[in-house]
Amino acid sequence: MTPEEAYSIRLISDVKLNEIGLFHVETWIENEKYKSAIYLNKQRITFGGNESSPYYYDGFLYYVKGSRREAKLIRQRPYGEPEEILSLGKIHKYVFHKNGILIIGEEKVKPSTYFVSDKLKYRFDGKGLFWTRQSLFLYNKELRKIISGNFDVTDIATNGNRIIISATRENDDYGLADIYEVDINTGELTRITQGEGNITAIAMNRDGKIAYLGHRKGKTPWAVREIIFPEEGKSFLCGNTCGNTVLSDLFDGVKEKIVYEGDQVITLGQVGGESHIYSVSDKVTKLTEGKLAVRGFDFKDGKLAYFYSTPEKPVILFYNGEAYDPNPNVKGLSPIEVKGEIEGWALITNPSNPTILFIHGGPHMAYGYAYFIEFQFFASNGYNIIYANPSGSQGYGEEFAKACVGDWGGRDMKELINFVNEVKKKFNLTGKFGVTGGSYGGYMTNWIITQTDIFSAAISERSISNLVSMCGTSDIGFWFNAIEAGIDDPWSKDGIEKLMKMSPIYYVKNVKTPTMLIHGEVDYRCPIEQVEQFFIALKMNNIPTELVRYQGDGHEHARKGNPKNMIDRLKRKLGWFDKYLKS
């Protein structure tokens, strides 16, 4: 398999049920660019190459037609010509109200030659500097801004009368959100939620009752999420956490959602490496089964449509008892479950082949039963692939997810090393071993090579090397690093000392492993200064190392970066591992 072949798949998102059938969006890469189109009942109906977010309302098809600098809301009658209703810099979501169309969007803004901020949070990965924020607009013949400020409106729900939004108004610096009721005439907000917490998605039924996916546990990145009914004082857990944190490197850009219809909320829930659909009413009912990861769904008038991924198939759309596969000729290798101290998996191509340990990011995310382009690519090129969910991973309960807090590179590293030894013995692996990971997986890759030389090669991506400098340069580092390190003040003497002793750069003199470092130039989550420090230190200690910097790419460079860069990345990673693991 070549990198070009690895990325020659079609993916599904934006599933939407309506009275004329099922809409879905397909995304693919063509001529080194992302393309998308809308399908109705599995037949393509738009052909511009950049359409998404379909919605059928009052005899019209609505959708968003986007480019890098502009997003247009389009309206079209069956067999009629498309009509542009409005344009913004970005359109994140739109819903229909008796007074018009409510839109979460960003205005078109031309950046100035200077930027001034008086807040801790003034830039964000994937956005850059905050030249504009996500606001709430109303369209009725003309566009009017309803809610705006130095915060983001993150979601909206309405039954046509009542309107609620989620927004980071109270604690934007830390990304915490609340639910507010909106007075559409005055823009006045009435706060509904109490305390502090995270809100990922909100929903409302026809009677105006509301629910959301999230938690009220403050600044706790490891907290499990629930379905919460804030006006009724009820909450429910789906599996080990509501929502889905099962990772993949698919470029579908899916977003989490919930649907509230009648007396039930439809949501995703996760147990270990599986994510499934659940119904929440007076009790929680699991609606799907199997070794898979459901990534998106819609529910309307008692009908359910959803799409899922498996280790062998990038995506399958399921509706009305029928499965639709946009990639019928793609069939990946199946992993073997390895259940010991922690849950893990292995793709064994040949016991004598070299083996690569992949470490996931987060740290409160998880590997599982989703397709990985990179796993299948390396397996097809003569490598065994192993991966696992050490302490800190989500999907095994809140205590397990919290277990790495204050102990990055401690218990989780021991578990991963034990996993490597277990797999080596179980499958009688005789080839060399390599290690790779991104984000927290990049931190762990950097950390492991300062603690052991059992790996013959390493590739660290969008990584962390210095937790102290990251506190002042990352979009979330000033709070995330402190909380994850278990300290109150990252700038106190004790705080700085603990952060440094948890940092790979502190032990860089121990490294003996040839290491490739890959980073996006505009990564605001793990800023490129992190890899610059580690690269210079490795070079000055005469360790074979290369630094690959991708122009224009951020933290998502390996999942939805520039397609040309993603192809180049796989070629370079393969070349590095071939050089040090196959010789």
From TrEMBL:
Q: Which UniProt keywords apply?
A: Aminopeptidase, Hydrolase, Protease
Q: Does the keyword Ligase apply?
A: no
Task: Please verify whether the record's keywords include Heme.
Answer: no
According to the record, the signal peptide region is: none
User: InterPro entries of this UniProt entry?
Assistant: AB_hydrolase_fold, Peptidase_S9_cat
Q: Which domain of life is it from?
A: Archaea
Q: Which SUPFAM superfamilies match?
A: alpha/beta-Hydrolases, Tricorn protease N-terminal domain
Q: Which Gene3D superfamilies match?
A: alpha/beta hydrolase (3.40.50.1820), Dipeptidylpeptidase IV, N-terminal domain (2.140.10.30)
What are its GO biological-process terms? proteolysis
Q: Name one GO molecular function term.
A: aminopeptidase activity
Ranges for domain Peptidase S9 prolyl oligopeptidase catalytic: 373-582
Pfam families linked to this entry: Peptidase_S9 (PF00326)
Under PANTHER family, the record lists: ACYLAMINO-ACID-RELEASING ENZYME (PTHR42776:SF4), SERINE PEPTIDASE S9 FAMILY MEMBER (PTHR42776)
- Name of this protein: Dipeptidyl aminopeptidase/acylaminoacyl peptidase
Which organism does this sequence originate in? Sulfurisphaera ohwakuensis
Traced from the root, the source organism's taxonomic lineage reads:
Archaea, Thermoproteota, Thermoprotei, Sulfolobales, Sulfolobaceae
